């Protein structure tokens, strides 16, 4: 028997999950640290409830509310808005579960998983793209949380708080609220991933209660649910609706396109594949759809009561007459924004930055860097109007990230059949080193898919950064389907290049990779 067979580099457990063999520890290379190495089996203990609560905590937030309310502001009625959001989240659940499989099976975070397709060094490209996007989202959410503190505290303290001296176009009390909220999130993330899990478990039910309470209050203001449901669509179901529907659908998918890549940052903690599959399926589409229904009903009610749709829940809560109601709304806003922002927008870039320089940047250091960058990019401009927020920001970002999802799924599911040599993800001159640490096939698929996805990006006159005819005019018809175009194009191109122009080392080692998974007789280590 060979040495590899006597001391297997990885152990496959009866439930299909894989861990490194205790007899074959990872060497101290420049591509591994304690945060990036595969988790031990005893560290993988998240249950179905943990994943469901994670999604409730991430989905119940102010941008999700504003996203749904923004569709009403764009002319949809409540049925059209809920349909758009439900369909978008059902679609994005598929890549979420498929990429999450690798985290649950191998106990690895997203940037390490990406090394299989892009190369040990090349994985920094999708990791930094995802990290940069998360920095923008973290800044948006932090500004929104600061606004929540500012507006609702102003309702309690009076005009002296809201009318304080301006600095940089904003009252200094707004900047104070922003910085306080920023510091609170830094304090939470400093406790690590276990603090994130506990925060989600406690915050999820509390935030759902808050959303229902806001619905009850608005129903009383509007004179009942009937008036809230009676607000007509300004688009109808004809051509005007479909012109808005498809880019809005891509925006819904783009909303969670970041998590569809780095969901393995969380599923690596899963106690089983069933836990992450069931938890995500129960948590994401159901919560987003239910929360969207709450949002569009309340936004429709605000249109009936105030004569215009108010799609910002903070602005709406500030109109409450009850001091107790305002305080409750303030607590809900803080819980909702913190739980979402840390889980969705801080965990991912913390791992991504750690992957860039594992010896210098730990998970916590990466989180602090993300927090600092988010202050410097002034992302609140993105949410000033629904059209820019949904079409320009979410559509463009979603198109680029869709290409990465297509590459990862093609590589992991169709080319490798979910089999990876775990230690090679951390080594030079092994299966995933390719040429100098980069896989040109994945880079080509990313470039072509990215151009097809966002090359035709356009803006209405005076409403965005793109020319009306599109960046590349003949690609403009594809722009409304950016995520789908990027995903499918990159999946097909990467799959074709890898099949017809394969890496020599990959073709030679495919049988070795399969042999690296021990037989049932060798599966002696107990399952956690």
From TrEMBL:
Region (Disordered), start-end ranges: 1-29
Gene Ontology molecular function, alphabetical: nucleobase transmembrane transporter activity
Record-level GO cellular component terms: plasma membrane
Record bears the keyword Phosphoprotein: no
Membrane topology designation: Multi-pass membrane protein
Family: Belongs to the purine-cytosine permease (2.A.39) family.
The name this protein goes by in its record: Nitrate reductase
Originating species: Nocardiopsis gilva YIM 90087
């Amino acid at each position: 028997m060979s040495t590899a067979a006597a001391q297997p580099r990885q152990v496959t457990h009866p439930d299909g999950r894989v861990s490194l063999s205790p007899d074959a520890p990872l060497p101290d290379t420049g591509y591994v640290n304690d945060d990036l190495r595969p988790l031990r089996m005893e560290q993988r203990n998240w249950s179905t409830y943990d994943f469901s609560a994670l999604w409730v905590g991430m989905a119940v937030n102010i941008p999700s509310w504003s996203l749904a309310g923004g569709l009403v502001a764009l002319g949809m009625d409540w049925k059209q808005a809920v349909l758009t959001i439900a369909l978008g989240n059902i679609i994005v659940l598929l890549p979420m579960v498929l990429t999450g499989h690798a985290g649950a099976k191998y106990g690895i975070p997203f940037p390490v998983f990406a090394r299989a397709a892009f190369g040990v060094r090349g994985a920094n490209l999708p990791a930094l793209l995802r990290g940069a996007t998360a920095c923008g989202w973290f800044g948006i959410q932090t500004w929104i949380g600061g606004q929540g503190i500012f507006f609702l505290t102003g309702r309690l303290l009076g005009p002296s708080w809201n009318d304080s001296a301006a600095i940089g176009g904003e009252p200094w009390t707004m900047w104070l609220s922003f910085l306080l909220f920023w510091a609170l999130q830094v304090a939470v993330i400093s406790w690590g991933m276990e603090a994130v899990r506990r925060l989600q478990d406690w915050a999820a039910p509390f935030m759902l209660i808050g959303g229902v309470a806001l619905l009850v209050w608005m129903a009383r203001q509007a004179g009942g649910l009937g008036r809230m449901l009676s607000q007509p669509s300004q688009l109808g179901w004809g051509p005007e609706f479909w012109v808005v529907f498809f880019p809005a659908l891509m925006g819904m998918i783009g909303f969670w396109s970041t998590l569809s890549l780095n969901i393995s940052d969380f599923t690596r903690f899963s106690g089983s594949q069933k836990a992450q599959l069931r938890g995500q399926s129960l948590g994401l589409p159901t919560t987003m759809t239910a929360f969207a229904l709450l949002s569009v009903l309340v936004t429709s009610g605000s249109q009936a009561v105030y004569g215009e749709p108010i799609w910002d829940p903070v602005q709406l809560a500030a109109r409450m007459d009850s001091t107790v109601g305002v305080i409750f709304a303030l607590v809900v806003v803080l819980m909702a924004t913190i739980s979402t922002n840390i889980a969705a927008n801080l965990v991912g870039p913390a791992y991504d930055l750690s992957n860039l320089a594992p010896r210098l940047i730990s998970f916590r250091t990466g989180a602090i860097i993300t927090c600092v960058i988010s202050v410097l990019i002034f992302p609140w401009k993105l949410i000033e109007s629904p059209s820019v927020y949904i079409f320009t920001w979410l559509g463009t970002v979603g198109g680029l990230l869709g290409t990465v999802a297509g590459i990862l799924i093609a590589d992991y599911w169709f080319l490798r059949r979910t089999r990876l040599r775990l230690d090679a993800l951390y080594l030079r001159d092994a299966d995933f080193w390719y040429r100098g640490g980069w896989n040109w096939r994945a880079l080509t698929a990313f470039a072509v898919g990215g151009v097809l996805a966002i090359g035709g990006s356009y803006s209405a006159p005076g409403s965005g950064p793109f020319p009306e005819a599109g960046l590349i005019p003949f690609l403009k018809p594809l722009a409304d389907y950016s995520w789908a175009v990027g995903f499918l194009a990159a999946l097909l191109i990467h799959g074709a290049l890898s099949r017809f122009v394969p890496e020599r080392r990959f073709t030679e080692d495919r049988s070795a990779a399969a042999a690296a998974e021990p037989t049932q007789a060798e599966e002696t280590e107990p399952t956690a």
